[in-house]
Amino acid sequence: MTTVALHSSAGKWVMVTTILASAMAFIDGTALNVVLPALQ
Fold it and tell me: Which of 11, 19, 20, 39 is the most buried (most CB within 10 A)?
């Protein structure tokens, strides 16, 4: 496995991608908990 420094260009993209994926998972879980009771 390759180590990527956070101050490099690749490191910034890794951080952005990780943060966006985490936010998408959180929003998906929240929306599912809100919408699911309405669908039943």
Answer: 11
